[in-house]
Amino acid sequence: MRSILPQEADPADPPDPANDRTDQGPTLAAVILPYERVRRPGAAGGGQAAAAEGLPRAAEARLAEATGLAGSIGVTIVHSAILPLRERRPSTLLGEGQVEAVKKDVAGKSVTVAVVDASLTPVQQRNLERAWGCKVIDRTGLILEIFGERARTREGSLQVELAHLEYQRTRLVRSWTHLERQRGGFGFLGGPGESQIEIDRRLIGERIVKIKRELEQVRRTRGLHRRARERVPYPVIALVGYTNAGKSTLFNALTGAGVHAEDQLFATLDPTMRAIGLPSGRTAILSDTVGFISDLPTQLVEAFRATLEEVAAADVILHVRDAAHPDTAAQRRDVLKVLGEMAEGPNAALDGGWQARMMEVLNKADLLGGTGEVIGGDPGAVAVSALTGEGLPELRTAIDARLSAGMELVDYDIPAADGARLAWLYRHGEVVNREERESGDLAVTVRLSPADRARFERDPFSG
Ligand SMILES: Nc1nc2c(ncn2[C@@H]2O[C@H](COP(=O)(O)OP(=O)(O)OP(=O)(O)O)[C@@H](O)[C@H]2O)c(=O)[nH]1
Ligand SMILES: [Mg+2]
Fold it and tell me: Which residues form the domain of 159?
């Protein structure tokens, strides 16, 4: 996979000072946030009201996020700047004066990678690289980079590589048409630049086909595993939420597991599952998932598939929010948007009823002075601190209640000899009545979750 880190040279790239470095010191990076002030009527109220209406996030919070993202790939950030955008220049996005100013900062601080927290066209990326004499990556490139480093499973790595190649391929195609246009009517076919790009495109295309085939294989295997797990007949609770909201910390607090939690974006990329006990005595499976982020590259939505299949199968979806974050409202909106997109289309990874299965957890209450001080959230939201444990008993009770709320009362006739099925019903449901018929069969009335009911009625029943 192509990496922005200095070890790998890309022949299609302009001379990259990072590649000429012989010392193995840290990669020095600059983070640039082009900031568009969107003026909307009635938005003058600012502050809280603006956040509630879903207006653009504060520039500082966005820069902090971008810096966090960049820092998470191990570069050392030596310069950062917020640059107000007056207009989007097609050649460089930024204004001429801004490009010059960044050039000075970058040169003065020996920066080898500049992260521009925006979506750059291939042309803009090239021009900025030439102007600044360093490698430039945009937000999509950065997120791809992070995902590439974090993927742990085979499927995760393949999916990220596929996304990366598709991103690169569109770049090649676009810069190719750009060159074409520049050449105009000269009929200058088969120039060296073009043939190199053609070769790159073909190689990328071949690799894409190969990865897709491999992914198919991996998914088939995972499908088999999933079916095996469906037979583990416990309700599933999935944690979703914006990156860094505290999902893994909450997962650890609820399960006592040692899952990697860190003040680092996308610390968790592949789903992790573990059993938890609930106050009613019921057992459930808790599933930790990848964090969401605003402006998720479209290529990566697909990479969430493994995660989303867990969510799709979940009986309860816990939306973990960082209640103390200045952008908590915008983060909530982003998460719901991604979930909504995943529930769309013929191959939707999520079925339409996901909203009904959702429950909000307002985390980091300790930073707001305790769970009593947390305001906002959906009806039924539970405030907690995954760090101090405050609110966790209430959360367990709320999850239990949620699981019971969807329960249905069902009647079954169980043959006298079928002790296993009867035992199963006792383990997973609440048997409210039981009568012996003359035949010796048992008439059982039991409260079951829809998922358990489906499991029980599956033919053949496999426990
Ligand atoms: N003060 C405070 N910090 C918390 C709380 N929960 C989590 N954190 C911190 O928030 C940071 C992110 O926590 P994680 O659990 O890794 O977040 P995550 O949602 O799993 O993040 P990704 O896996 O990157 O999506 C860590 O530094 C945690 O220690 C909390 O209740 N209070
Ligand atoms: Mg995590």
Answer: 151-226
